[in-house]
Amino acid sequence: MVKTLLDYNASVVTPITNGVAIPVPISPAGVQIAGTSVYIDPAVPAHFPNKVELKATIGVNVTLDTPNILVRIWRAGFEIFYARAEYEDFFNDDGIISLHMVDINVPAGVQNYQLIVENQDTNSTAVVVGPVIFSAMAIGG
User: Fold this and answer.
1) What is the rounded CA–CA span in Å between residue 56 and residue 89?
2) CA-to-CA distance for 43 and 59, rounded, in angstroms?
């Protein structure tokens, strides 16, 4: 079956390490570090079924102990993805979190996505330092 590119969008907060310094808050607080959106046009015959491929790259620096960094993706106020990465300040205090997620059969219209991080270890600290890149590609058919 032929696939149709419906829309693409990307947010490049910073393409380099040390381009930002965003403290990762302790759970249950979280901080949005990037956002992106796609438009699923209902007038396009191939708009359904569809898939939205979401990709993110997040550079972090561990400043104390062993943070458990939880990465969440939200769409329309609902969590649709989460994953956890753990880093150790004695061995790998700088790290890159890369993720790839597919949102299936997204409703027509504008879909806004939020990339959120939080730290699940109350005795540790981490900072998002970059790169921070978040993209969405909507494919129909």
Assistant:
1) 23
2) 39
Residue for token digits 């149709």?
4
Greatest CA separation found in the chain?
54
pLDDT at residue 23 above 80?
Answer: yes
How many angstroms separate the CA atoms of 49 and 62, rounded? Answer: 41
Dist. CA 80–CA 78, nearest whole Å: 6
What's the angle, vertex CA 34, arms to CA 79 and CA 54, rounded to 5? 60
Tokens of 18: 């040390």
Q: What is the 3-state secondary structure (H, E, C) of the chain?
A: CCCEEEEEEEEEEECCCCCCCEECCECCCCEEEEEEEEEECCCCHHHCCEEEEEEEEEEEEEEECCCEEEEEEEECCEEEEEEEEECCCCCCCEEEEEEEEEEECCCCEEEEEEEEEEECCCCCEEEEEEEEEEEEEEEEC
What does pTM read for this prediction? 0.95
The yes-or-no verdict on residue 95 having pLDDT over 80 is: yes
